[in-house]
Specification:
The chain is of the alpha/beta class. The chain contains eleven helices and 21 strands. The protein has helices spanning about 10-30, 35-40, 65-70, 105-120, 140-150, 160-170, 180-195, 215-225, 340-345, 375-380, 385-400, and strands at about 85-90, 100, 125-130, 155, 175-180, 205-210, 230-235, 240-245, 255, 260-265, 280-285, 295-300, 305, 315-320, 325, 330, 335, 350-360, 365-375, 405-410, 425. Strand 5 (about 175-180), helix 7 (about 180-195) and strand 6 form a beta-alpha-beta unit. Helix 4 crosses helix 5 and helix 6 crosses helix 7 (about 180-195). It is globular, with a radius of gyration of 22 Å. The termini are far apart. The structure holds 5'-O-[hydroxy(phenylacetyl)phosphoryl]adenosine. 5'-O-[hydroxy(phenylacetyl)phosphoryl]adenosine binds near residues 210, 233, 240, 241 and 300. 5'-O-[hydroxy(phenylacetyl)phosphoryl]adenosine binds near residues 139, 210, 234, 236 and 300.
Length: about 425
């Protein structure tokens, strides 16, 4: 369902709205965040130099490092008494960063995320189970407020206790739930282990986000749950989940452009790339009060584009985020992403969707080992067949990655499952 008029606004009107808000937020941040004031002075820029949307590219970037250095209060644009809440990023790539919200910011957040959930079918009649963590992570409480705005019935189960999650789904008739894609898989696997068929449940769609998942992973989840999956993208530094979302067409994520201005840059040179080209996503918040972000470098890799989406939404789209520039592994000088391995493994159609990449340095040589689980069926196959299969996976990986990997088919259930973001890479070189 389309939630409100901003999703179908005439693109030229949206552009004017964005421009007006951009100029305002630059001035606001310059006047209220001492760090930002100094940063612009260092770059010899004043808000008066920013006269149009095109001028935004003159402004310096803000990075996670800037935020870490000013943890926890150094990026605030309002006095602490005006704040309603703090969250932190999950800290998967280092020390967490603190993010703050005024009551107005919380309201915007609920609104943009409500649009995302409504796009995937959440409505007043829905029973929505939130299996992502409540607490400092933006997932749980963010989903809570957005689903409340829609009027859905919420099961705030948070993470953990997978058997209980399934029991709740059954007892309360859960129609929709949100999980990291890796946890959605684990939930389904646990249902199988407990002899619960998906047909006994009332799931109508599954929302996934908070980590990269390939198209093959999506197909696998949809096959297992027999419903559509909806991708929800966002990050704490910008607001949390709700920056962009899938629609039923599943052909790119619609951006909530009235609140966020997105650019894609060349991660090496920082140059803005034309629409359609792939690079690093940079986001500016247009309406946030407590901690506005101007040109925040997300490290997420994507491309922006426009199409005539049959769903009726007119907003700019972004390709699903399948990788982060800091996920990139360099193996013997060759760059590769874990998501490429995921696509090869799941594309084979016979392996279990659980894998891990282990990187070692032995005698100054990088060694990549891909561990992938066998399904129960495969596990019963002859040794000769399994050796052949390992060789085939190795060959396919070499074709896609350009480097040789050691492939190990491992027993079902032997790779650790996660309740939140999956740990796909163990890099022993660091
Ligand atoms: O993960 C917010 C979130 C919660 C999004 C629940 C969706 C659902 P952080 O912990 O700050 O916030 O991590 C943000 O996670 O920069 C991406 O690298 C990754 N990420 C988030 N959503 C997606 C997605 C939350 N749909 C970082 N696809 C981001 C791929 C995603 N990666």
């Amino acid at each position: 369902m389309i939630w409100n008029k901003y999703e179908t606004m005439d693109p030229s009107k949206m552009e004017s709205l964005q421009e007006e808000r951009l100029l305002k937020v630059v001035k606001y941040t310059y006047e209220n965040v001492p760090f930002y004031n100094e940063l612009l002075k260092e770059h010899k820029i004043s808000p008066q130099d920013i006269k149009s949307k095109a001028d935004i590219s003159k402004l310096p970037f803000i990075t996670k490092q800037n935020m870490r250095e000013r943890y926890p209060h150094g990026m605030l644009a309002v006095p602490i008494k005006k704040l309603s809440r703090f969250h932190t990023s999950s800290g998967t790539t280092g020390r967490p960063t603190a993010v703050a919200y005024t009551a107005h910011d919380l309201d915007i957040w609920a609104e943009v995320l409500a649009r995302s959930l409504a796009a995937g079918g959440l409505c007043e009649e829905s029973i929505f189970q939130v299996t992502v963590k409540y607490g400092l992570f933006t997932g749980g409480l963010g989903m809570q407020s957005a689903a409340e705005k829609i009027g859905a019935t919420i099961i705030p189960s948070s993470t953990g206790n997978t058997a209980r999650q399934i029991m709740l789904m059954k007892d309360f008739g859960t129609t929709h739930f949100i999980a990291t894609p890796s946890y959605a898989l684990f939930l389904r696997e646990t249902m199988d282990a407990e002899g619960i068929s998906i047909d006994e449940l009332n799931i109508q769609s599954v929302f996934c986000g908070a980590e990269a998942w390939s198209e093959d992973m999506r197909r696998e989840l949809e096959r297992q749950y027999k419903v559509k999956t909806y991708d929800i993208y966002g990050l704490s530094e910008i607001i949390g989940p709700g920056v962009s979302c899938d629609c039923p067409e599943q052909n790119g994520l619609h951006i909530q452009e009235d609140h966020f201005y997105l650019e894609v840059i060349d991660p090496e040179t920082g140059e803005v790339l034309p629409e359609g080209e792939e690079g690093e996503l940079v986001i500016t918040t247009l309406t946030k009060e407590a901690m506005p972000m101007i040109r925040y470098r997300t490290r997420d890799l994507t491309r922006l584009y426009r199409d005539k989406c049959p769903c009726g939404r007119t907003t700019l789209k972004m390709k699903r985020v399948m990788a982060r520039s800091d996920d990139m592994l360099i193996i013997r000088g060759v760059n590769m992403f874990p998501s490429q391995v995921e696509s090869v493994l799941l594309g084979m159609g016979i392996l279990a969707p659980h894998y891990q990449l282990v990187v070692d340095r032995i005698n100054n040589l990088d060694i990549l080992t891909v561990r992938v689980e066998m399904t129960e069926e495969l596990f019963l196959e002859s040794q000769t067949r399994l050796i052949k299969l390992e060789a085939e996976i190795k060959e396919r990986l070499k074709g896609v990655l350009g480097v040789k990997a050691i492939v190990k088919l491992v027993e079902p259930q032997s790779i650790e499952r996660s309740e939140g973001k999956a740990k796909r890479v163990i890099d022993n070189r660091r």
